[in-house]
């Protein structure tokens, strides 16, 4: 009994001064390593450090040039693949599978893991495989041929095959990295069960999170030598990364290494800071570690305390679905793009393309990069193009409808006139007058449709825009005072000339006034401003028309330019054609008209025309 207790407490595997060469290349030198029973060991190091070579020695695939190997208290003079399997060593290789693609899952489980495999019946192998899969609640058909599985499922089955063999020492050489999330969780649960059954597990991985979530001990290998083996809890992540992966200097001096490492980090930070994009860098826990200069300037972050703050703090006020999408991309370490989303970033609203990029050092996940592209202007222009296409299609339809309606309408009107003078009955005349009135209303609608769809120009002349607006103000001022609406006009100081038909421009302005008057039945204010604007070196004239009404109750305010669209519910006299006609007139003279809600009250129209003559000037203020 005492000898059994001693054997149980002794290491399962001990390597002493093991050395391995591939020809003249020294791969491993003076490796000393002990693996205790029922422990999970992690072996970590950069590419080419010797991790896989060490695992191949333990599994009997490679024979070292020197050193001693003890397994389960016994010295192994000649450890080869056969003796390793007999001792209970199972290894899942990094690049090769141990599966026969033409065998079923059950047959692969039994192959090389069952004594006298050929003497066992297929039924017994199938029953044993079913029981094994059921034990771990794995939904796989053991009769399925391996070649019919996906590449990821083949890796999953390969790991299960080595577990099926009931190993004493189970080696996973970067095998977990290739699994899907559900398969990964299944294998983790099985590994914990194996550990409870006193199986020793050697995990070779680059994923630092796996080391801290699964392993009891970690060994760091570098340049073919074990630097340190210690409990995982005794080594923090930063020191682990630095010891395993940092290649900044060949100088063995720790002070020099730290200094060069610091300068390298500062150099990389300087590059990121000066990139001409809005860029944020986070760590593994989605804490902000860097916001570059462009992002600080565009979103007013210079005076904000954001270092080490969670990303969601900057996204306060953003649509929750969008915030959840970004959060899921960061947590899932995924490269994702979300196009043309309304983003509130540090309380600044922009239309953005948001991209997330996970950052890796080799296979080690460091954090994420978030790039925010402001596409507000692009989005505005795109909506303008879509609206123009909609209106062009409706215009063609309107022209056809108006033409078809006019013909029978004239016939009806003629017959009504004939009937009125043919029959002298007063009651009959009242009915005819009512019909005449209704026909006139129909004619008015048709006329508006024709105006909307008519792209021909009337008599074009040079119009001074400020004078045109003043003339309109004189026309409507009495009506405005009656409705308790105050109008403030701030004209540009110098002349603003455009080429258009004066009566059509007045119609555009009149439609805007009519729209605002109807939106403010209890009174309010209208602000009109004119100005010059240069775009791509060309002069434009702009009219800003703003009221203090309730705004436009629509996610896309520009829908009000569509024919027969109206937000004024219950206003039977409103046909919803005025702003559509205005849009058509503005477009006819190569202009643009857009609308947006302003804050919690009111909306603003922006009309822009090419300027006929460009004169520098200031603006002055006047009040009506």
TrEMBL record:
GO terms for molecular function: ATP binding; ATP hydrolysis activity; phosphorelay sensor kinase activity. Its EC number is 2.7.13.3. It comes from the Bacteria. Residues 13-248 form the ABC transporter domain. Residues 400-613 form the Histidine kinase domain. SMART domains: AAA, HATPase_c, HisKA. InterPro entries: AAA+_ATPase, ABC_transporter-like_ATP-bd, HATPase_C_sf, HATPase_dom, His_kinase_dom, HisK_dim/P_dom, HisK_dim/P_sf, P-loop_NTPase. This is histidine kinase.
